[in-house]
Amino acid sequence: MPRIQLDYSIYLVTGRELLPPGKDYYESLEESLQGGVTLVQVREKNADTGEFIEVARRTKQICDKYNVPVLINDRIDVHLAVGTAGIHIGQTDCPLPLARQLIGPDAIIGLSVRNLNECKRAIEQKADYIGIGTVWRTESKDTKGRKCLGPDGTGEILDLLHDTGVQAVAIGGIHLPNLPQLLHGSISPKYSNSLDGIAIISDIVSSKNPRESASNLREIVDSFKRARKSLNQYQVKGGVFDSPFVIEHRNKNEFTNDYLIKRVEDLMNVLKDETPLINQLTNKVVMNDSANVTLAVGASPIMSTNPRDVYDLSPAIGACLINFGTIDDKEGMQVAGRQANVNKKPLIFDPVAVGATSFRRETAQELLAHWQPTVIKGNAAEIGAMAESSEVASRGVDAAGSGFKDPGSIVKQLAKKRAAIIVLTGPEDYISDGNLVIKLSNGSHYLEKITGSGCQAGTLIACFSAASKIDYLNKNNEELFENKSQLVQGDMLLGAIAGILVYTVASEIAAERSDVKGPGTFRSALIDELYNLTPETISQRAKIEIRY
Ligand SMILES: Cc1ncc(COP(=O)(O)OP(=O)(O)O)c(N)n1
Ligand SMILES: Cc1ncsc1CCOP(=O)(O)O
User: Fold this and answer.
1) Helix, strand, or coil here: 534?
2) From ligand 1's centre to the CA of 131, what distance in Å?
3) What is the pTM of this model?
4) Which of 14, 118, 396, 506 has a 20 to 30 Å separation from 527 between CA atoms?
C-alpha cells in the first residue's frame, strides 16, 4: 500500500503546557481543526507512557472526525499503540533507517533538519518530510546557542529537495505577522521550491481562539499556494513575472521602454496628488537632504525612529526606508520593518557599508531575520556583501575598484535569493526582480562628489514604491488584498526604476546648469531639478535597457 499523501499546510504540533489558563486541550484541538489545521503531531515532553498513549488516542479520535491524520513526536511505541499515520523524529532520536524497520513501509516518517548536511542525510534516508528549523527564536523549545535559519536559510535547504519528493515544513517562531515573510522569503534561490506547510505550536495552542488563529494562518498559506500555482502555469506558457515576493503578472510584449516611461510619469503624478508619508530611519549625515528630496518629488518625509512611535505611525505611512548608515536605533529598525510587513507597506533596505565590518554584517542578518524588505539598494560593495561575493571590496561606505564583471547576473541572483527587488547603484544602475534586469545609464559625476547621494536614491525608491502601491489600489479600486500572502500590492520593480530614473535624470540637468560650479551648488540645484522635473524630460533623457 503506498504511503498516504499528507496535507502539510497547517501542521499543528501540540503543547498542552502552553494552553491559555482555563482552556481544555481537547476543546482547543477541536476548535483548531475547525479553523483549518490539516495535520496534527502529538508532542508530549513531560507525560509518562500511559498518559502519552491516552492523549494520543483521544487526539486521534477527534482528528478522525475531521479526516486529519495524526503523527507522534519521537515515540514509536505510542505510534504503534494508537495506530497513527506515523512519527516525527529529531536528530538525536531513533535513527531513521531503524525507525523505518520498526514501523514498516507504510507509516510516515518526518525528520527535523537544522542545516544542509542534515537535509542531505534526510534525503538519503528517505524521510517522507522534513521539519526545517528553527526559523526564528521561540519560547516553545529550548534552542539556546543555536543559530536561527531565517527565511533565506530555510530556502537554501529547500533547494536540496528538488526532484526528491521529500516534503517540507518550517518550524519555530512562526506567527501570523511573519508568515508572508517566511513563505516568500524561503522560496529557494536555485529551483524556486517553496514550503509545503508550516508547523506551529504557540500561535494556535496559546490562543484563546484557536479556530480563528488556525483559520487566519490557513488563509495565508492557501492563497500563497494558489498564487504559486498560477505563476507556474503562467511561466510554462512563456510569460514573465515579478519576483516571487511581489506576485503580479507581467506581459513581456508590453513591458517596453515606452511603457516604463509612461508608468514613471503616472507615478510622478500620483506622488504630487497623494503626498504619501515616507518614514525614514536613516543616518544622521543625510537626514536633511533626504527629507528635502522627499518633498521635492511631492511626498512627505517623517524621520521617526522611536520603536513606539514607528509602531503607531506604520498604518499611516506610504512606505518605510531603513538605512543603517549610523545604526543608531536598531530596535526602532526592527519594529519599523516588522510593522511595515504587518501593514503591507513597501520596505526599502539600504544596508550602508554592510561589508565593511562584522558588526554591520551581523546587524543586517539580525534585521533581515525580523522582516522581509521589498527592495534592497546598495553600491557594488554593499550588494557584493549581501550576495556574499568577494568581487568588490568596500572602502568605508564606498565601493573600491571597478565593480562587477557581470552586474546583471549578481542582481538577478540576489533578487531570487532574497525574494526582493535588488538595486545596484553606480555609474550605471542595475535593477532586478529575479526575472528581468533593467539597466539605467543616466546620472552625473557630481553624484559621487556629494555625500549621501546613494541614500537619497534609496529615499526616492521609497517614495515611488509608495506611489506604485497607491496607483495599484486606485486603479483596482480595492483596499483589500486578494492574495493574503502578498506583502505589498503594486509593481515594486517599477517603483525602484522610477526612483532611480527620476534621481539620475534630475542630476544630469542640475549638472548642466551654468550656475552649478561644483558639488555645493550641485547639491541645491539637484533638489530644484527634482522639484521641477517633468515627465517630458524623463522621456527625452531616459536611457533604459531591458534584459531578459
Ligand atoms: C514538524 C516538526 N519539525 C521539527 C520538530 C522538532 O523535533 P525534534 O528535533 O525531535 O525536537 P522535539 O520536538 O523532540 O523537541 C518537530 N517536533 N516537528
Ligand atoms: C518543536 C520545535 N522544534 C523546533 S522549534 C519548535 C517549537 C515551535 O513552536 P512555536 O510554533 O511556538 O514557535
Assistant:
1) coil
2) 7
3) 0.82
4) 396
* Cell of residue 440, nine digits: 539605467
Question: By alpha-carbon position, which residue is closest to atom 1 of ligand 1?
Answer: 131
Cβ-based neighbours of 317, under 8 Å, separated by 6 or more? 276, 277, 278, 279, 302, 340, 345, 466
Which residue do the cell numbers 481543526 mark? 33
Does position 371 have pLDDT exceeding 80, yes or no? yes
Phi-psi region of 73 (alpha: psi -120 to 50; beta: other; left: phi over 0): beta
* ipTM, 2 dp: 0.99
Average pLDDT of the chain to the nearest whole number: 91
Beta carbons of 382 and 427 less than 8 angstroms apart: no
Taken in order of first residue, the domains within the chain and their CATH numbers are 10-229 (3.20.20.70), 257-547 (3.40.1190.20)
d(CA 132, CA 114) in angstroms, rounded, equals 6
Ligand 1 centroid vs 373 CA: distance in angstroms? 29
Q: Whose alpha carbon is nearest atom 8 of ligand 1?
A: 90
Our measurement of the distance from residue 264's CA atom to the centroid of its chain's CA atoms, rounded to an integer in Å, reads 25
Which residues are the active-site residues? 455
Dihedral, CA atoms, 17, 22, 26, 28, nearest 10 degrees? -90
From 239, 498, 454, 429, select the one nearest 325 (Cα to Cα). 454
The whole-number pLDDT of residue 240 equals 41
Summarize pLDDT for 440-489 with one digit per residue, the tens. Answer: 999 999 999 999 999 999 999 999 999 999 998 888 765 555 667 778 88
